[in-house]
Design a protein that fits this description.
Number of strands: 28
Radius of gyration: 37 Å
Bound molecules: zinc ion
Distance between the termini: 83 Å
Strand order of the largest sheet: 3-8-9-10-11-12-13-15
Strand content: 15-25%
Structural class: alpha+beta
Length: 872
């Protein structure tokens, strides 16, 4: 018991020690005006402090004061107030003395980075100055240089209370690093215009030329004081090196500090830099840096593993540490009115798992959520809030992001990568929107500043809400395999999943010889596999092969084939398994049957050939349960031209075909445009009064094939309100490799089995005689797939993705063509249906979108076809 308690105390002490170290790990970047794409100075900063911390943002207005007013410092020191203080943006960390950042109306930016000095006998007057230093600069300075000189005067008068620090003091023209030593000493250096400086918790100013007052400013006795204290001997030590003389040896020699500065500089520099402690104050970047570049540097969370010099030296360190509470990039442009030109890109939480949102100086205030919770919370409150379930509440920005970081980390690195992608997407949009937004604000600004201010504030708030939505969505996207499977299963349980095209190839279907009630080795679709894959319903195809001649005899033969298939489906649903499945005649039936735990069986006739030239036959097939007809198959028929025969017979839809479509509209039967020629397709769209179905086809743009739809067809389908159900048939999904083609050709040759299309011309006798060989062909055909892979689920979903991009999410579904040629790697039968959903989840589809794909769209089309029929 005692041991256990002791261990916990030790552990707590260790965590505290680690946190205390992290607390000092801020990181700052200053980009000179000629080193930025904006032609102005940029400042970027990660504010690292151990929790519990809260970050608030305020827009503090200008303030006028009377002649006698005084400013009282925290420790009692007093100074004269000025007539007027400038307006400024204030990023506040309540209760923290050295963590706030400010940007004032002149663009003067102040932030800081803890850099302990070696001073151990600081001279303080009236309690010294600390926290107020940055606020006074923001309130009083019109330029960075003014800010530096003001800070210098204040430090020399009161003395600095903390061990030491580098303040970044910048304006649109120049950036300075102001290094303050505990007590009354300081030294500042201007960042060269074409260069970039970075600070990581230790002084970076080395040799100085104090006579060059344009670039160096310092307390008068900065060198003599060091000499007096014995820290510097001009004879022994050579030229004065500020960092070497004044920095605390522990900070100066800490590999994390030098490592982070090196990592940051290396990331941008044109010249290679050796890792070590001898780092340059600033470097010329490889290319001019943009706001986005700075976000990426601050987001950088691990060393580049490919860099052997880093790993060999033990150098290099995350710039975005786990302790980052907030981060920002300021864009200080002076070619626009300051209200528009100065932009504070704020990132609450760690940039690793968060997003930078722009706030123009002209906004009247930050959105409500950015300025709540002014109290510093207790550790207990902090932990409770960040561990709570994620809730994207716009009223509590800081908590939302802190909580989100927690959730992200718990879900692991692939998830963090997904979030970063989302954050970058939002940031890139914001960057793209910046120019038009600012032009609009600028034209408003001339006449109506309030309206311009509102526009900018509304824009930022809108982006914030959008970011919350994106994060919420990202959080819903599972990344590891187990989570994805669980989520796919849950979706299949929640939504109705339908397949619009499954063949029942043989007349023996639904007999003891070919029993769909068992897990049948020769069936890709049976009741067992459907249950296993969470598939709720299928359209079984009453497929009739096309005879070469259109006459009374071939029509009669076709009718007999159709009848035998209707009978097979009736056997399945009525005599064999009425407890496990039922015939659905309308969308309501589907939902009712599925809700009762049975499989919905629907009927589609594949090929309108058996109708002959008798429209009333449509009524009879409708009465028997058929709800769609594929107008033709792989050859022209009496209704329309097929896509598989290049030379047209009717040049599209025949005159009889038009009447077929009209009657189907009247009955409420869906017209299926799979297999029909492009001209037939457009003819169909021109005459139909209802949305159409494309029950099993793909996209030509992904893989050119006569059975697939062109992008123009997809757009026409969208305008018609119809749906394309993507086919899972290898040859339609992607180009076959020559190796595979050759293997299949050799197999055909060896077994004497011609192509599917050619086999359609076989007589019944031929068919019967060849059956064993055809079976052998398919057995070995599948073996070929092991050597020369067929299309994958990813290829399949590529067609879904493409349809969504072209026609939208409301116009795509699933129509496998199982047992009629369909079946791909990973989606070879209905038991593997989940793999499609998993791939959709991986690609970021939401449950609602997946519901549409897996049957929602098909049911909508069917309902609209029914409604159009009733209107007549
Ligand atoms: Zn087909």
């Amino acid at each position: 018991m005692i041991d256990h308690c002791k261990r916990r105390v030790l552990l707590a002490a260790l965590i505290l020690a680690l946190s205390a170290m992290a607390c000092e790990a801020c990181f700052s970047i200053v980009v000179g005006k000629d080193a930025s794409t904006d032609g102005c100075v940029l400042v970027a900063h990660n504010e690292d402090d151990y929790p519990p911390q809260v970050v608030n943002h305020h827009k503090v207005p200008r303030h006028a004061y009377g002649p006698e007013e005084k400013v009282v410092l925290r420790n009692g020191g007093m100074l004269e107030q000025v007539e007027q203080t400038w307006a400024y943006v204030w990023a506040e960390m309540p209760g923290m003395l050295f963590s706030d950042s400010c940007v004032n109306e002149w663009g003067v930016t102040v932030t800081s980075d803890n850099c302990p000095s070696r001073e151990d006998r600081p001279d303080l007057t009236d309690g010294g100055i600390g926290w107020m230093l940055r606020r006074l600069i923001a309130q009083r300075a019109c330029t960075a240089r003014e800010g530096v000189l003001l800070a210098g005067r204040l430090v020399e008068h009161f003395g600095y209370i903390a061990p030491g620090r580098t303040y970044i003091i910048a304006d649109p023209n120049e950036g300075w690093l102001f290094c303050v030593v505990q007590g009354k000493h300081w030294l500042a250096r201007r960042v060269p215009d074409d260069q970039v400086a970075m600070v990581a918790n230790t002084y970076t100013i080395r040799q100085v030329d104090l006579s060059d007052r344009a670039n160096y400013l310092a307390s008068e006795d900065i060198v003599t004081y060091a000499t007096e204290r014995g820290w510097y001997d001009p004879q022994k030590n050579g030229p004065f090196d500020f960092a070497a003389v004044y920095a605390h040896p522990d900070s100066a020699s800490h590999p994390d500090n030098a490592g982070r500065q090196w990592s940051g500089l290396k990331y941008i520099t044109r010249q290679p830099i050796e890792p070590g402690f001898d780092l340059p104050f600033s470097v010329v970047p490889r290319h001019k840096l943009s706001v986005t570049d700075l976000m990426e540097i601050l987001r950088h969370d691990e060393t580049d593993e490919s860099d052997s010099s880093a790993s060999a030296s033990g150098f290099g360190c995350a710039l975005c540490s786990g302790a980052t509470q907030t981060s920002f990039v300021t864009q200080l442009r002076n070619d626009l009115p300051p209200d528009i030109g100065i932009v504070y890109w704020a990132c609450l939480g760690e940039p690793r798992t968060s997003v930078y949102l722009p706030f123009h100086f002209g906004i009247s205030d930050f959105p409500a959520g950015f300025r709540t919770d002014t109290e510093r919370p207790t550790a207990e409150v902090f932990n409770r809030r960040v561990a709570a379930p994620f809730e994207g509440t716009p009223g509590k920005a800081f908590w939302v992001f802190a909580n989100f970081r927690d959730k992200a980390d718990r879900q692991g690195s692939p998830f963090v990568a997904a979030i970063q992608a989302e954050a970058r997407r939002i940031e890139h949009s914001a960057i793209a929107m910046q120019k038009p937004l600012e032009e609009a604000a600028r034209s408003l600004y001339a006449n109506d500043r309030v309206a311009a201010s509102k526009l900018l504030a509304n824009y930022s708030r809108g982006l914030y809400l959008w970011a919350l939505e994106g994060m919420e969505r990202a959080l819903m996207q599972p990344t590891d395999e187990e989570q994805i499977t669980a989520r796919a299963q849950a979706i299949h349980e929640a939504v109705v999943t339908l397949d619009s095209h499954v063949d029942i190839a043989e007349e023996r279907y639904a007999t003891a010889a070919l029993d769909p009630g068992v897990d049948h080795p020769n069936l890709r679709c049976d009741l067992v596999k459907m249950a296993r894959g969470g598939l709720d319903g299928v359209f079984l195809a009453v497929y009739v092969r096309q005879a070469p001649e259109l006459n009374a005899r071939t029509y009669a033969d076709a009718r007999r084939i159709a009848d035998s298939k209707f009978e097979a489906i009736e056997r399945l649903t009525q005599s064999m398994y009425p407890d496990r499945c039922a015939l659905a005649l309308c969308p309501d039936d589907v939902e009712r049957i599925v809700a009762a735990g049975r499989k919905a069986i629907m009927i589609g006739i594949e090929n309108g050939f058996p109708i002959g030239e008798d429209l009333d036959r449509l009524n009879r097939y409708y009465d028997r349960g058929a709800r769609y007809i594929t107008l033709c198959h792989s050859a022209h028929n009496q209704i329309c031209d097929s896509s598989s025969q290049p030379a047209p017979l009717h040049n599209g839809l025949s005159a009889f075909g038009r009447r077929v479509v009209a009657r189907m509209n009247e009955l409420g039967m869906m017209c299926d445009a799979s297999h029909i020629s492009e001209k037939s397709f457009y003819d169909l769209l021109a005459v139909t009064q209802a949305p159409i179905l494309v029950s099993h086809s793909g996209c030509s743009a992904v893989h050119a094939h006569d059975r697939n739809l062109t992008d123009d067809q997809l757009l026409a389908l969208r305008d018609n309100g119809g749906v394309i159900q993507i086919v899972a048939l290898d040859g339609y999904l992607r180009a076959e490799t020559p190796e595979r083609q050759e293997a299949v050709r050799r197999l055909r040759e060896e077994l004497g089995v011609p192509s599917f299309a050619e086999r359609q011309n076989w007589s019944d006798e031929q068919r019967e005689a060849m059956r064993p060989r055809v079976r052998e062909f398919y057995r070995r055909y599948e073996q070929i797939a092991e050597t020369f892979p067929i299309a994958s689920v990813s290829d399949y979903v590529d067609h879904i993705d493409h349809t969504v991009r072209v026609a939208g999410i409301d116009h795509v579904g699933v129509g496998t063509d199982f047992d009629g040629g369909g079946g791909i790697a990973g989606f070879g039968n209905h038991a593997e249906s989940l793999n499609v959903t998993k791939e959709l989840l991986r690609r970021g589809y939401t449950e609602e979108e997946i519901r549409k794909i897996w049957g929602g769209n098909l049911l909508r089309v069917w309902r609209r076809v029914e409604a159009a029929a009733r209107k007549r």
